[in-house]
Structures are given as structure tokens and as C-alpha cells.
Specification:
single chain; alpha/beta; Rossmann fold; three-stranded parallel β-sheet; globular
């Protein structure tokens, strides 16, 4: 995921606009270089939007080949690109496009296409991705993709994962419902290690739901008390605990 941007600070949905890293975002990207083992990474692929490209450069400059791919862009909010996040109503655009933008189903389709490309082109390689919005709903999306396509990986690291959970609010329920699947535990057949991070006061997902998700699939659980949704909103601008597992 790219570093914090000026739009993040101003609560704007950047979408397909390029956006700019804030001073904090630059610092995060530089610090990440010191926290990871660059020798274990074969290739870097970033979104082709400036905020992701810049993040990748600050972290991997002069050490790795960096490719850019538009398939891992954020959702195109069309007329709402760059507008206040409160105006972006995901539940209204699962199947229907944002005006002059795309639907969430179209986002899912291009991400699936990208995952298939990775499997075909770089199977067995360690790829670092620099993209957008990466946890909570991502664990069930990734699990579902691996199971449906019978893809094996070395390790999965999930943050605030959940499945088959409704009751957050109408907006999130509508989006999340489209991602659920019944055979979650099958993902254990396709990963040697599954590490699940979760907290006890997540404002979006109940503790019991995240704990149940981890109980079903994790080889190791990492519980962080009072960490909220384990994102910048709850003070996690950097996540050294996760980096230690890479």
C-alpha cells in the first residue's frame, strides 16, 4: 500500500487522480526500506498512479526493477475523484458505475485479471505490490481467489479479516456481502503459514467476528489490544509488527 497522501489527510477519495504523498507518506516509504529484506524480493509492481509510483521509488529505488500496472489502481470514482470521502457511496455502485467511473464489480474483475497474470508470469517469485486499500475485506477476497484457482503460496498475512458478517452499516454490508464464500477453511490447503492480526475494539468489525476468522484458518494469531481497525485512523501509520513477518 502507498504512503499517506495529502488527500488522505484531507479525507478526500483520490480515485484515479494521481495524488501526492504527504511528508508523512514520504517518511513512511523511506522507513519501510530499512525494515524489509530487499534480497528476498524478486520484483516490484506498483499502480501507475503517482502516489504509488513515488512510494515504490522511495522504498525500492536503485535496488529493484519497478513495473507499473493500471489494473491495481484504486476504484475510479469518476466525477467524485478527488471529492470528500463522505460523497462516495460504495453500496450504490456494486454493479452500477460511478458517474463517468466504474463499478466495484469492474474493480474486482480487473484485480482478478491481475492476479491471474501474476500466477502465469511470476509463479514462485516474491513480488512486492505497491497499491491502494489493502486490508479487512482483502483477506476474504484473496482466500477466495486462491481456493477457486487452487493456487499455493508460502505465507498469508491478514489484518482484521472477516467472512459472512453483516451488521456494520448498509454501505459496508452491501459491499462486503459480494465477497463472502462458504468454504473459507479450504484456504489452509493453499498456504504454509497464515498469520492473522486483529484487535478488540475495531469500530467496523466485532472482535468475535475477527477472532472467529482467525480461529478457522490461522497458523498464528496476533492480537493487539486497543488497536481499532489497525490503520492510520487508529494510529497505525507504520506497522512494524507486520513487517517483522515478511
Amino acid at each position: 500500500m502507498h504512503g499517506t497522501t495529502t488527500d488522505n489527510i484531507e479525507h478526500k477519495s483520490t480515485g484515479w487522480l494521481h495524488g501526492n504523498l504527504s511528508e508523512k507518506g514520504i517518511e513512511q516509504s523511506i522507513k519501510l526500506r530499512e525494515q524489509i529484506n530487499l534480497n528476498e524480493i524478486d520484483l516490484v509492481i506498483s499502480s501507475d498512479l503517482k502516489r504509488a509510483i513515488d512510494s515504490a521509488k522511495y522504498t525500492f529505488k536503485d535496488s529493484k526493477v519497478i513495473l507499473h500496472d493500471k489494473r491495481i489502481r484504486e476504484c475510479n470514482y469518476g466525477d467524485l475523484n478527488g471529492e470528500d470521502t463522505s460523497l462516495v457511496k460504495y453500496e450504490e455502485h456494486i454493479d452500477s458505475k460511478f458517474p463517468n467511473g466504474e463499478s466495484l464489480k469492474e474493480v474486482e474483475k480487473r484485480l482478478r485479471n491481475f492476479c491471474e497474470y501474476l500466477l502465469k508470469s511470476y509463479n514462485g517469485k516474491t513480488i512486492a505490490l505497491v497499491s491502494h486499500i489493502g486490508h479487512s475485506i482483502a483477506p476474504v477476497f484473496i482466500s477466495k481467489f486462491l481456493v477457486e484457482n487452487k493456487i499455493k503460496v508460502k505465507k498469508l498475512i491478514f489484518v482484521c479479516g472477516f467472512n459472512n458478517y453483516l451488521g456494520i452499516n448498509e454501505e459496508y454490508d452491501a459491499v462486503n456481502k459480494s465477497m463472502y464464500f462458504d468454504n473459507l477453511e479450504d484456504v489452509k490447503k493453499y498456504a504454509n503459514e497464515i498469520i492473522c492480526f486483529y484487535s478488540d475494539n475495531d469500530p467496523y468489525v466485532r472482535y468475535e467476528t475477527e477472532k472467529d476468522f482467525a480461529d478457522k484458518i490461522a497458523t498464528e494469531q496476533v492480537f493487539i489490544s486497543n488497536a481499532g481497525h489497525i490503520n492510520s485512523e487508529s494510529g497505525y501509520d507504520t506497522f512494524e509488527d507486520i513487517v517483522s513477518y515478511l
